[in-house]
Amino acid sequence: MADSAETRKLVYLVTGGCGFLGEHVVRMLLQREPRLYELRVFDLHLGPWLEELKTGPVQVTAIQGDVTQAHEVAAAVAGAHVVIHTAGLVDVFGRASPETIYEVNVQGTKNVIEACVQTGTRFLVYTSSMEVVGPNIKGHPFYRGNEDTPYEAIHRHPYPCSKAQAERLVLEANGRKVHGGLSLVTCALRPTGIYGEGHQIMRDFYHQGLRLGGRLFRAIPASVEHSRVYVGNVAWMHVLVAQELEQRAALMGGQVYFCYDESPYKSYEDFNMEFLGPCGLRLVDTRLLVPYWLLMLLATLNALLQWLLRPLLLYAPLLNPYTLAVANTTFTVSTNKAQRHFGYKPLFSWEDSRTRTIRWVQAVEGSAP
Ligand SMILES: NC(=O)C1=CN([C@@H]2O[C@H](COP(=O)(O)OP(=O)(O)OC[C@H]3O[C@@H](n4cnc5c(N)ncnc54)[C@H](O)[C@@H]3O)[C@@H](O)[C@H]2O)C=CC1
Ligand SMILES: C[C@H](CCCC(C)(C)O)[C@H]1CC[C@H]2[C@@H]3[C@H](O)CC4=CC(=O)CC[C@]4(C)[C@H]3CC[C@]12C
Fold first, then answer.
1. I need a surface site. Which of 105, 109, 190, 275 has the fewest CB within 10 A?
2. Where, subcellularly, is it found (predicted)?
């Protein structure tokens, strides 16, 4: 029944569909959206894994394109029922210029919205970020907060600033008339730090640990807690929102939802050890040797070196004043808004998420850094 031609009618577009999250969204849609007729995967860099998806019952269309190019976006959006916009430049290390980050994250999102309006696409799901809220530049903790918790959201770094601007544009576009006269329905999902199969920073920490003889050095006190969320659950929440947006437009349109699951609250480093520990790494407590002021000094030195070396080479280490501030500030969410509004429940338990991630790190073991 689910595979009959009559039930397969919907065309979805996933921007950034070859990224860490995007790939999981694409695979989840193929598994969990029986009404799918065509799935368009739009990305600057297409992955070879897309080929294996082309043999199934759903037409998978790979589109190499750039969200900053309005005409490329409009061509990809035309005829789609739903757009899931995950494409973005995730850079908190100073690899890209602030201008490029704005161009991709803000102008790219504007292009997606305008393409929906011009071509008559009614449903837009945007991948925002917890960074839209915080941690703020004052390092205020956000403890077990929800979507309505008051918090002074002030940023200077281009990444959170660009995500905040883009999220605002998406929410303001809710209710705009699209081609054909119907209204656009939009909403934004705010994942906390995502982990799981394909997580580049986890891979980097793993290889760093191997280089250091199986050790990683604790820099952040264990008392600083972060919320983390498994990539499969983030993908599932995107799929569910996309499915429910039409029926529940009045409730969900223009809303934001944190992406959460049952992953435990822990410091960034302790949480990573849930996966890296079983793969043979150890977290060595050097915090007494490396006090916070010294870390801050090193982070500032890194930023200075980055600036000095820029004309010659790209120096972009993990430690800089921004990443240190984020890692060192408690940011935990506790909410059931997604459950109340569209019946979200995590698809993967914490045990499943942990096991899947450990298996992936173990498979990464032999691969080059
Ligand atoms: N990784 C994380 O912990 C979190 C990520 N997010 C958001 O989730 C989304 C996906 O992030 P990740 O999967 O982690 O990053 P990613 O870098 O793995 O994926 C982003 C994808 O967008 C594509 N892309 C970049 N510029 C593009 C352009 N100009 N045109 C077309 N495609 C372009 C990239 O090629 C990549 O495949 C982003 O919007 C990010 O802001 C939100 C919260 C946490
Ligand atoms: C790289 C940081 C950890 C290294 C700190 C050091 C060098 C002292 O050990 C990461 C700590 C927190 C991460 C960010 C957080 O999970 C929230 C994010 C949300 C996003 O939308 C994008 C990614 C990120 C900014 C994430 C990036 C890495 C950290 C700063």
1. 190
2. Endoplasmic reticulum membrane
